[in-house]
Amino acid sequence: MAVTRATAQQSIVRDALQAHDGFRSAQDVFADLRAAGHRIGLSTVYRHLQSFAAQGIADVIHDGDGEATYRYCGESHVGEHHHHLVCRHCGRAEEVEGGPVERWAAQTARRFGYVELDHTVELFGVCGNCRSYLPS
Amino acid sequence: MAVTRATAQQSIVRDALQAHDGFRSAQDVFADLRAAGHRIGLSTVYRHLQSFAAQGIADVIHDGDGEATYRYCGESHVGEHHHHLVCRHCGRAEEVEGGPVERWAAQTARRFGYVELDHTVELFGVCGNCRSYLPS
DNA sequence: CGCTTACTGGGAATGATTCTCATGAGCGAT
DNA sequence: ATCGCTCATGAGAATCATTCCCAGTAAGCG
Ligand SMILES: [Mn+2]
Ligand SMILES: [Mn+2]
Ligand SMILES: [Zn+2]
Ligand SMILES: [Zn+2]
Q1: Which DSSP letter does residue B93 get?
Q2: Which one of A30, A73, A76, B63 has the fewest beta carbons within 10 angstroms of its own beta carbon?
Q3: What is the Å distance from ligand 4's center to B43 Cα?
Q4: Residue among B37, B38, B47, B44 nearest B1 (CA)
Q5: Domain locations in chain B?
Q6: CA-CA distance, B110 to B48, in Å (whole number)?
Q7: pTM for this structure?
């Protein structure tokens, strides 16, 4: 599943991801690359995004419709376990530590006798920037 | 979006959900109902499951593939905000309170200047029952 | 410079969810 | 109990993200 050779396509997919600070879908990235004049296949975009995620270089979040969105992981958090605070308007995301959550999760699982624990924790809101633009 | 009239189909979809203590997909519920000899359409199953969710009667979780799964909410937690500890093997789920998580989420959002906060928190593991059946 | 093997990409296939719309059934009013 | 309006139903088509297939291409190594 991990695509390892250094190809031109791998580069442009990585660059496209890094160019934004928010989560973007494979379809989005594909459309942007094509619009920018790059010759690349949709399958290839999927392959690399998933490969980045498998390597921990990128994070994945499934949006409300279940569509997978990817984000290039910030330098300081590559590989480390962390979560995100995502602006549901512009897609911008902050990487956050989950200290209290991790402890609560472990304790809760123990209480119910569950093992091999894992968890998904994502925070959504409207960022300071978008707040000014938006009504209500 | 909420289907309100008391129809036979609404009943059997509700019953099918209540009959299991784990999260199940619309496709699963549909297959079961058909196998049990009920005449019902797939669209109708989707309609009712989504309606239950909109009313807070059922919970929804998107599984790893982004497929939506539904679960009839336990009596004591209907309407109240809560989370789940789900067995990734048999689908069984425990309803859990997220006290520490709620506080952490609010504090984190404030720190980054985000408003209109919301969050998804789901715990996954292997339940005590399944642990005995499973290898490794 | 070859060779081997992994990568590419167009198109077809898959599978969940949504849409359309003619038919059927709640239920409030009579 | 009946009528009639409105909403619910369901079969099939449509949508859309993601995966599969596979012949052609290029990376990396000697
Ligand atoms: Mn990250
Ligand atoms: Mn619940
Ligand atoms: Zn924003
Ligand atoms: Zn289990």
Answers
A1: E
A2: A76
A3: 30
A4: B47
A5: 1-76, 81-136
A6: 37
A7: 0.89
